Amino acid sequence: MSSVRTIMVTKEFHARPKGRYKTDAPGCEFTAGEVFRENVLAKALKENDKVIVDLTGYNRYGRSFLDEAFGGLISRDNFTKDELDQKLEIKHDTVENFVTTAYERIQAAENKRLANG
What is d(CA 8, CA 84) in angstroms, rounded to the nearest whole number? Predict the structure, then answer.
């Protein structure tokens, strides 16, 4: 039996996610991509066959948040792009650019991983 977990970022993590690291600025310990990845996303990917990350509900995701949350899965949590292609789906009902950026950050992290062997 396969398990699917949907994560509504604005409801399960923070209404206004921002920042790369929890140390970036006051409040980032609650909003940063690093915190989302470490506390929510990586765990969900390890425990489920498929994870759908729904970014809908917020229209100001920064590249630094997306890079750390999604690219960090490869650069810090040792996932591969192949694994993420099988298990991870990212969506936003109105702003496709955030989805595109998130997948670009995954690809960039994979390219770096492969280059570094």
Answer: 18
SS3 42: helix
| Counted domains in the chain | 1
The pLDDT tens digits of the residues spanning 23-75 come to 999 999 999 999 999 999 999 999 999 999 999 999 999 999 999 999 999 99
Domain that holds residue 109: 4-116
Would the pTM of this model clear 0.90, i.e. be above it? yes
Residues in the chain: 117
Distance between CA 90 and CA 82 in Å, rounded?
15
| Segment (H or E) for 8 | strand 4-8
- Separation between Cα atoms, residue 113 and residue 111, nearest integer Å: 5
Helix, strand, coil percentages in the chain from 3-state DSSP, rounded to 5: 55, 10, 35
